[in-house]
Design goal:
Layout: E1 4-6, E2 14-19, E3 36-37, E4 43-44, H1 47-69, E5 73-78, H2 81-84, E6 90-94, E7 99-106, E8 131-139, H3 145-151, E9 158-159, E10 171-175, E11 183-188, H4 189-206, E12 209-214, E13 223-231, H5 232-243
Parallel strand pairs: 4-12, 7-10
Antiparallel strand pairs: 1-2, 2-11, 3-12, 5-6, 6-7, 8-9, 8-13, 10-11, 12-13
Amino acid sequence: MSSGYRRTRGSSYLLARFRASGQPGERKRGVGEHWKAIGGDATEYGFDANLAFSRGVRERIDIDTVKKMIGGCKSVIKTGEDQDRLHVDYEATLHGGGVIDIDAKGRRFGAGRFWNTKSKGRENIRPGEPDVAIEKWSVMPTKTRTERLRCGCNHAGKTGWTIDTSSNTHLILYTFDPLDTEEVFLFSFPLLREASRRCLDDWYERYKTGKQFTPPKRHRSGWFSEVVLVPVSVVERAVLAVQRGVLAAQE
């Protein structure tokens, strides 16, 4: 598959759109969509399996892609599990010694079948435009007896990574299976977090939501997570609105 580089117009917040590289003729087995639209049971998929998927399928392409997208990048390394759990999947080191922490969000094969097949009119969403997952709940509050039984405990709730103010992540790398799209998106995380904070309620009203269940293990409980799937151009415009402002009034 071909590769190339393109900077979007007026987009310091979005470093680039990129055609991800891959081996000619390479095809990946369809393994189902990670997030499932609410209306049935949540997709059941654990952190350990997600970690194995990320390492086994995406790591090589992610590293090569980051190197091509970030100018002056000397090296990119995969972090360990402790960093993974803190929302840092890769560390990119620049020639001058600066380090950029990157959280990678990869969607599995089949995501494209949920994307818009028609333009949304005034929203100016192109047909087949990818959407990206904006996480509201990393751990959803348990509200019913059935949820408590499945999780094995009662959860008060934990804020999703997208609006988590404790995270020191610098960039978010959104990727997809190449059979769905070869486009990838690299966002400034602090700007994405603020855009999500401002727009989350509106996005939940307008776009599909999905939840995932991580089953309990011997030494820990299970939990539900929840995201809203937002067309990428909508997220881009929200981030642009965050980075443009006016001086604060002086008293």
